[in-house]
Write a structure and sequence with these properties.
This protein has three helices and eight strands; from the N terminus they run βββαββαβαββ. It is α/β, with parallel strands linked by helices and 147 residues long. The protein has one domain: D-tyrosyl-trna(Tyr) Deacylase, Chain: A. The strands form two sheets. Strands 1, 2, 3, 6, 7 and 8 form a six-stranded mixed sheet that branches. α1 packs across α3. The radius of gyration is 15 Å and the shape is globular.
């Protein structure tokens, strides 16, 4: 699975003009499933994201997790994280899981996150979404976990 985390001061997702999820301080998590990924990997990804120390402590060091600061988690599906740009100017997306597996693992990420963290918001799988964010830092962290 692939995730791209952005530490945010605020973020929201809109679908057809309606807000589907919004947070204040926290993490925007763009997530993409790949063929061969499974539920255990989705669970491992969520655990890693919630423990990742990307928020500053009193000394200004990145030493706190989103859980430590009581921040929000906004989870958005984004199959384009699996883009292959090696062959020309049009990216290929064959590295992304198909829609059925992608949806199942996205929903697993959400379900696991909601069990492990008190504030989880979401985009809408497969929808044309507008993501608004104020990147804090900026801090952007890629994560790739393989089965």
């Amino acid at each position: 699975m692939i995730a791209l985390l952005q530490r945010v001061a605020s973020a929201r997702v809109e679908v057809a003009g309606r807000v589907t999820g919004a947070i204040g301080t926290g993490l925007l998590m763009l997530v993409c499933a790949e063929p061969g990924d499974g539920e255990a990997l989705a669970d491992k990804l969520v655990a890693k994201v919630l423990k990742l120390r990307v928020f500053s402590d009193e000394a200004g060091k990145m030493n706190r997790s989103v859980a430590d600061i009581g921040g929000g988690l906004l989870v958005v599906s984004q199959f384009t994280l699996a883009a292959d740009t090696s062959g020309g100017n049009r990216p290929g997306f064959s590295g992304a899981a198909g829609p059925e597996l992608g949806r199942r693992l996205y929903e697993r990420v959400l379900a696991t996150a909601r069990v492990m963290h008190p504030q989880v918001e979401a985009g809408e799988f497969g929808a044309d979404m507008q993501v608004h964010l104020v990147n804090d830092g900026p801090v952007t962290i890629p994560i790739a976990l393989r089965a």
